[in-house]
Specification:
The model has no long low-confidence stretch (mean pLDDT 91). It contains 5 helices and 14 strands. It is α+β, with helices and mostly antiparallel strands and 268 residues long.
């Protein structure tokens, strides 16, 4: 199946303790948005709580969302995923026309939710208002390494005020994410991606290992202007950076279960 022309909008972690995750990412030198609780538009047109709260790391390209399910009874689509594991779950793809993308995927036989209207309040220096977005997803299933959604930001001017794009550690851009697992599970995941018309190569990598474990997202790749400050801050947080060709690897542990693959250079 030919992949649709989509780009990576953001990735999201489901964390057990949003405040602990916020504190860690802040200590590592990332600038985070203020806490915001999601709302969704109900059948009667009124906004109601969506059962989740978040902070975001806004980058010049893409962003990283830290989310906690605050009310499992509210019907958030990721509540079942949280019950299986914490960590990187959300793979959000950008679309300029959610309804057209929805129609194209439905015509290929994909199971999809309706296009939904959600929002979150923004109260940052240089940006005040209600960030609105349209999105749809494919129902998460236990065998999925990620929860897929396709999103269009209706108020992009609220997303990236200049103050949120300056990070003490020099973070600049979300480059992609990496999945690892057994050869058989990776083959199945590639087939799942293809069934949703999600192409590999634009920041998405699926790497077979010698492990027998099911495929899971293990790392977010982020570009930094320089790695020195990140390295110093990681050590102060009790995280020993691992030197690898082209950068550093930081295993963030249980407070924010993911590895950051930090890259540096003149440009992303």
């Amino acid at each position: 199946m030919t992949a649709l022309a989509l780009s990576l909008d953001h990735v999201g972690l489901i964390v057990p303790d949003l405040e602990a995750a916020r504190a860690l990412w802040s200590d590592l030198g990332f600038t985070l948005t203020r806490r915001a609780d999601h709302t969704r538009t109900g059948p009667d047109g009124q906004r109601v709580p969506a059962g989740s709260a978040q902070h975001s790391v806004m980058l010049q390209t893409g962003y990283i969302e830290l989310m906690q399910i605050t009310d499992p009874r509210a019907g958030h689509p990721l509540t079942p995923a949280m019950q299986q594991r914490f960590g990187l779950h959300i793979l959000a793809l950008a679309t300029e026309d959610p309804k057209a993308t929805h129609a194209a995927l439905a015509a290929r036989g994909c199971a999809l939710s309706p296009v939904m209207d959600w929002s979150r309040p923004v109260s940052e220096e240089g940006a005040e208002g209600l960030a609105r977005f349209q999105f749809f997803d494919t129902p998460w299933q236990a065998s999925d390494a990620s929860y897929f959604c396709w999103v269009r930001h209706m108020t992009p001017e609220l997303m990236r005020p200049p103050g949120l794009l300056t990070h003490a550690n020099g973070a600049q851009a979300l480059l992609g994410l990496t999945y690892e697992g057994s050869p058989a599970s990776c083959e199945g995941w590639r087939a799942r991606l293809a069934s949703l018309a999600v192409g590999l190569g634009s920041g998405l990598r699926v790497e077979a290992t010698a492990l027998s474990a099911p495929v899971q997202p293990v790392a977010i790749e982020v570009h930094f202007a320089d790695l020195g400050e990140l390295e110093r801050r990681a050590r102060r947080c009790g995280i020993e950076p691992k030197l690898v060709p082209g950068g550093l690897q930081l295993d963030l542990g249980s407070r924010s279960p993911i590895r950051i693959d930090a890259r540096s250079g003149p440009s992303a």
